[in-house]
Amino acid sequence: MIEDNETIEEFLAQHAVDVEDAVRKAAAQEIMPRWRRLADHEVDRKSGPHDLVTDADRQAELYLTEALRALLPGSVVVGEEAVHANPASYEGIRGEAPVWIVDPVDGTRQFVNGDTGFCTLVALALGGVVHASWTFAPVREELATAVRGQGAFLDGVRLDAGSPDPARDLRVATSHPDFTTDDQKRSLLGLRTDGVAPRACGSAGLEYLAVARGESDATAFCWEAAWDHAAGLLLVEEAGGTHLTRAGEPFRITGGNDLPFTAARDEATARRVTGLLSAGA
């Protein structure tokens, strides 16, 4: 079992490509054969009309759970669908073992609708710190990776988030209104001001990738589920960006954050967004 940062770095040096291979195979075998071919019985609703799960989600997560555990004996997997079935399994994020954080199909609604805007997210964390991440958009054939302290890459090309153009409105992807509380809605209203162009987000993983590659300026999200955020937050960090909660603290994958929070291309943008979110509240 991995016990310190030095050995987790050694594991990644030897096996990062194996993780990438597992992610690609999960998509090829369990996700893409079902894209635009889903039967009615392969789609279910969890907590509401927009909270969907499909056989692709379930089977891809099972594939990744087996493959990732085999790569790193003693590790645990916290996956969205397993936690839905057994909420107590989420505690693995706060445990002492290395944890794989998995969202098999991030953007299930888009997947069900036949859109291209979905991806598979995998992150490796230890002690509440994310050390590596993989974001794979199979239809677009894009793979973004990040290793803490080693940079972020899209298909092998280093990502640099840069800073927003001061001459244009700040582009901010926000939580969908269907998934926000009244307090969070009031906070998000702070973004409806001159110089800011908020819009409802799509796949969280792809929104983080858009920030990391400088296509979007920031996010403003209102939920904590680590499978949606862990991979993307490291990607943004390693591309030169940052993330802050409404309290002005970095987002913690272990929870207890003051929401909403932002991931942004640079610190100045992050502080601008969190200031507006606090003003809205």
Automatic annotation (TrEMBL):
Keywords for the protein's UniProt record, in alphabetical order: Hydrolase, Magnesium, Metal-binding
Enzyme class: hydrolase
EC code: 3.1.3.25
UniProt-listed Gene3D superfamilies: 3.40.190.80, Fructose-1,6-Bisphosphatase, subunit A, domain 1
Cross-referenced InterPro entries: Inositol_monoP_metal-BS (IPR020583), Inositol_monophosphatase-like (IPR000760), Inositol_monophosphatase_CS (IPR020550)
Catalytic activity: a myo-inositol phosphate + H2O = myo-inositol + phosphate
PANTHER family: INOSITOL MONOPHOSPHATASE (PTHR20854), INOSITOL-1-MONOPHOSPHATASE-RELATED (PTHR20854:SF4)
Name of the molecule in the record: inositol-phosphate phosphatase
Protein species of origin: Streptomyces prasinus
